[in-house]
Write a structure and sequence with these properties.
126 residues; globular; mainly alpha; 0% strand
Length: 126
């Protein structure tokens, strides 16, 4: 009996794990809805400037791509990874800056990343 190692190019087939698993996509979708609702709440609470900041940061990955920023560069990765807007949100929460559009921009940005992950698009997807 011989066993061959799995091919490295073969994606994971388990439906609960991997980038395209239904459980992973459902969790990203729930996070996207929660973040969108929170961004909407903050926009309603603080006005037009916060709404504009949330919407502008929601399209930030598209604007970066239209500006010619392509992967796998460091700037492309920074725009399309969830850690960057998370650092903005945590930094705003614990820092001395009190400017609500910055917080809603982080929410909009993280919402977009969660929405992309729900669709199965990762930071290295075309």
């Amino acid at each position: 009996m011989t066993t061959e190692p799995p091919d490295a190019a073969t994606p994971l087939r388990n439906s609960a794990v991997g980038r395209s698993g239904w459980l992973t996509r459902t969790a990203w979708g729930a996070l996207a809805l929660l973040l969108a609702a929170f961004a909407g709440f903050e926009s309603q609470k603080y006005g037009t400037l916060t709404t504009a900041a949330a919407l502008a940061s929601f399209v930030l990955p598209d604007l970066a791509r239209l500006a010619g920023i392509r992967g796998p560069g460091m700037l492309y990765q920074a725009v399309n990874r969830g850690w960057t807007p998370l650092v903005v949100l945590v930094g705003y929460t614990v820092g001395p800056i009190v400017w609500p559009p910055l917080f809603t921009a982080g929410l909009g940005w993280l919402t977009r990343i969660a929405f992309d992950r729900t669709r199965g698009l990762g930071p290295t997807s075309p």
